[in-house]
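ingest -> validate -> predict -> emit
validate: passed (alphabet ok, no gaps, 332 aa)
predict: started
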Amino acid sequence: MRIILFSSKPYDQQSFNAAGFPDDWQLSFQEAHLRQASAGLAAGCEVVCAFINDDLGAAVLQQLAAGGTRLIALRSAGYNHVDLHAAHTLGLTVVRVPAYSPHAVAEHALALIMTLNRRTHRAFNRTREGDFSLHGLIGFDLHDKYVGIIGAGQIGLTFARIMAGFGCRLLIHDPAAVIDDLHSLGAQQVTLDELIQHSDIISLHCPLNTATHHLINAERLQQMQRGVMLINTGRGALIDTPALIGALKSGQLGYLGLDVYEEEAELFFEDCSEQPLQDDVLARLLSFPNVLITAHQGFLTHEALAAIAGTTRDNIAAWLANAPINQLLPAA
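emit:
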């Protein structure tokens, strides 16, 4: 059986080669993103393994099905980039990795918070240049601050437990009921408006869907406390990105940490250092000293990569046995 991985990097090849795939499963690693122009590379491959910035719209899925593909195995939990109705119509099974390491993403959210707060990135550059002054490096105690967590899935819950360890006050918004052990940490489940209005730090951990698209927009930014810290390690389109610029310029938004970006598909995971940055919104964000942007690396730990490869292997094996697991179906 032939399996092709699109958008693969050396770390993907290492983790998948170490995952113990059967000898008769032929893995092909392609650095190219999956697009209409590259879909022909999958001809003859029963399984296409795609990542978050690959195009799995109807046109691409039609090409894959015509080339013999029968299974789309996502290397991600998110699936907003997949046309599930088209896949179902074409007879394509779609499976995902629903969880790999919630600690990886939750800890990266903490890293963004700590770096922005204590300005360690700026201090690092200063001391390397012989500047040992402390002006402009004042932070704040996390203890007793209100941390708003939007989304109480595995990552959101893990993040909540981490922040509880700092003595933070936890405000959680999620359509489902918060599990009991978070109440024992003092977490309060609140409405989105309450969370927006009372949080010192807001961290996004919800899925991207029609209800959460541009959940954070200009109106909600104005409802936040002045000087609030906003962190997004979820999906880029949870935020109406251009609205951030006005909030940063006015000081309404005091800190911004992004590991995802709405228009990241052609930029993130690539070395673009030899080219002028064509995205004017991203270029403007990068010009602010209180903005920290990382290129979707929250998942990038040894443990998470091993879990992604292992779950993908198990997903394919279950599909071959006509007992698919972690399958995605179109909404009714």
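The radius of gyration is 21 Å.
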